[in-house]
Amino acid sequence: MGLKKIKDNVFWAGAVDWDRRLFDSLIPIPDGTSYNAYLVYGKDKTILLDTVDPSMTHVLMDNLKDVKDIDFIVSHHAEQDHSGSLPAVLEKYTHAKVIASSKGKNMLVEHLHIPADRIDIVEDGSKLDLGGKTLEFVYTPWVHWPETMVSYLHEDKILFTCDLFGSHLSVSGLYCQEEWKVCEAAKRYYAEVMMPFRANIKKHLERLGKFPADIIAPSHGPLYNHTDCIVKSHTQWVSDTVSNEVIIPYISMHGSTQLLVDYLTDALIAQGIKVERFDLTVTDLGKLAISLVDAATMVIGSPTVLTGAHPIVISAAFLANALRPKLKFASIIGSYGWGGRMIEDIQKTIPNLKVQMFDPVLIKGKPDSQAFSAIERLASEIAAKHQELGIR
Ligand code: FEO
């Protein structure tokens, strides 16, 4: 793959994972990803910023084959997709020291068994002079783990943000010219990885505003040489503003829940509300996560399997709960054959959602006119609440 020049004496040295289709053994990544490492040569010292996923150590080591000396390796984040090749790099560059935050040091020892005496701690706000290249370290805890930090290369105005501003997108160059493509990939990435830390990211975005960046260089996906769009998008995503939108993740077994979902969809659209539906038997969970970034309301639809909610619905509800979106309202609709606790099962699964719950609509068997009236009422209640929020 080889080094790619970003600025004088600043190079991309990472690995593109064109074929990866699942992250965390959970979330689809239809466009692959990359693990970005960067090499900076000062007059006196050479530094590597992050490494790559262990599965791609050979690519990184090949990129470094002509690099004689590395003095420091910054570990912005101990998670293995960025730190996993540290042992190989340390084995080749026997005098190199790893630089990490104080929590990062402990995590690197625990996760990768890096010898503690090969890791130096840098404090928040400290600077490292490489000789004409000055790197400043900024602690950004919970972006995405407690030890995470970013760094800023003053002379070149490059902000190295590790997971922050990342995207799961594999491209052949440093930058992606198709803005829509990187925007969707970055939103998917934010939804899947960063959304639970929205409040922390909001604070960090304000702090990072004092570092004027010509280039933002994350550790996944393309770099940004026009930084406005990605910063503005994140500012919007972490804000408290929600959109006039209802998302409906659902499953139907014999068609009854489907009829309720269809009726609700039409009723909401008639009220001027945008609807996104996700048939969970076929849905891309990443798309569901993306829709959770902005939507005001979620209505979960489930049939009853034996005595409870459909397990695939529970799985999606569990994921939504873990992602902690900024939803304001929620409800549950569905059906049962002879009994069960479908509603209670779902309610128990979503304690993190700080939402106002509308009364559920639960029917036995095929919906009748009374059931459709209840759905109509639910749509009207949602519309009224959206109106109160001023999003209609
Ligand atoms: Fe890309 Fe949190 O690791």
Characterization of this structure:
This protein is of the alpha/beta class. It folds into 2 domains: 235 residues, Ribonuclease Z/Hydroxyacylglutathione hydrolase-like (Metallo-beta-lactamase, Chain A, 4-Layer Sandwich), CATH 3.60.15; 139 residues, Rossmann fold (3-Layer(aba) Sandwich), CATH 3.40.50.360. It is built from 12 helices and 24 strands. A 7-stranded mixed β-sheet has the order 1-2-7-8-9-10-11. Strands 17, 18, 19, 22, 23 and 24 form a 6-stranded parallel β-sheet that branches. Strands 12-13-14-15-16 form a 5-stranded mixed β-sheet, with no helix packed on it. Strand 22, helix 11 and strand 23 form a beta-alpha-beta unit. The longest helix is centred in the last third of the chain and has 21 residues. The structure holds MU-OXO-diiron (FEO). The site of MU-OXO-diiron has 8 residues, from helix 2.
CATH fourth-tier homologous superfamily of the largest domain: Ribonuclease Z/Hydroxyacylglutathione hydrolase-like
CATH topology of the largest domain: Metallo-beta-lactamase, Chain A
Global shape: elongated
N-to-C CA distance: 50 Å
How many strands? 24
Biggest sheet character = 7 strands, mixed
Number of helices: 12
Number of domains: 2
User: What ions, cofactors and ligands are bound?
Assistant: MU-OXO-diiron
* Oligomeric category: single chain
Percentage of helical residues? 25-40%
> What is the correct CATH architecture of the largest domain?
4-Layer Sandwich
Radius of gyration: 24 Å
So what's the CATH class of the largest domain? Answer: Alpha Beta
Low-confidence stretches: none
